[in-house]
Design a protein that fits this description.
This protein is of the alpha/beta class and 273 residues long. The protein has helices spanning 35-42, 99-111, 126-135, 154-164, 184-187, 195-209, 213-221, 229-232, 240-247, and strands at residues 15-19, 54-64, 67-70, 116-119, 143-149, 172-178, 254-262, 265-272. Strand 3, helix 2 and strand 4 (116-119) form a beta-alpha-beta unit. It is globular, with a radius of gyration of 17 Å.
Length: 273
């Protein structure tokens, strides 16, 4: 990776919010349910201006009291899903870490007055390695994972993203992985009770993401007031990676790059820049 902060590339990287599916869904016999999402993830790298030198990823599966980064040079995998076939616990994604990038992230956060920490033991949870096995299948791009804050404050997560925006000009891709709909009680059992609220929330979220940046920031900070919001996200940890991606967008516009209906629920993915 070139020196962090150098500008060796003609184009800065965008920021992304992508779906990571349900558990190891892409690597199971689950006919057709996840096909569109899998195809979207497989094509994702080809939409970037150039191959990233590194990736900073925020998953819906890691929360800490302060923003925390992985610093292992060779992160292991955390198989944090339960009740799936044995082969899904042997999946491998040997992407390297980047201790240097992790420390640079901490410096940027400190400059923005945001407290941070590092963790040399933590590996990549399934919100990282499952979608990345499709999107960045060669596992040759260094990856640093950044935690969510356990306060789940949307404005604070946008502020974290804003602090990381300079990384984009250094050819570092910032990715939030989660799900724009995440009510597991209704999702995985196919319940139709939130199909319409999911559609309404998805439409609102897309309008918010594609609004002019100042309006986008205001709307996303107040996401819980949107139609169907708390039915779609009884707990918002899978939505908050979007806030980091939106914060890192700066004045770049947002667009919907993935739209699907899975098990009756509307789902979206977004890009900024």
């Amino acid at each position: 990776m070139p020196a962090i902060g150098s500008s060796a590339h003609a184009h800065k990287q965008p920021t992304l919010f992508i779906p990571h599916g349900g558990g190891p869904c892409f690597f199971m016999d689950w006919p057709h349910t996840w096909d569109h999402m899998a195809d979207f993830l497989r094509g994702l790298c080809g939409t970037l201006p150039q191959k990233p030198d590194a990736i900073v990823v925020v998953s819906g599966h890691w929360e800490e009291q302060v923003a925390t980064v992985t610093t292992s040079a060779h992160p292991e995998l955390i198989y944090d899903y339960y009740g799936f076939p044995p082969h899904t616990y042997t999946l491998q994604y040997p992407a390297p870490g980047s201790p240097a990038l992790a420390q640079h992230i901490r410096m940027l956060l400190a400059d923005a007055g945001i407290t941070s920490a590092d963790n040399a033991q933590r590996g990549f949870d399934h919100g990282v390695f499952i979608p990345f096995m499709l999107a960045f299948e060669q596992a040759d791009i260094p990856v640093v994972e950044l935690s969510l804050l356990s306060t789940l404050d949307p404005a604070r997560h946008m502020a974290i993203g804003a602090a990381l925006e300079p990384l984009r000009a250094a050819n570092v891709l910032i990715v939030g992985t989660g799900m724009s709909y995440h009510n597991l009680a209704h999702f995985m059992n196919g319940s139709p009770l939130t199909n319409q609220p999911a559609k309404e929330f998805d439409a609102w979220l897309t309008r918010a993401v594609t609004a002019p940046p100042p309006e986008r920031t205001r709307l996303l900070a107040q996401w819980a007031q949107a139609p169907g919001a708390k039915l779609c996200h009884p707990r918002e940890e899978h939505l908050l990676p979007l806030m980091v991606a939106a914060g890192a967008a700066g004045q770049d516009n947002g667009q919907q790059i993935y739209s699907d209906t899975v098990l009756g629920k509307a789902l979206s993915g977004y890009r900024f820049g």
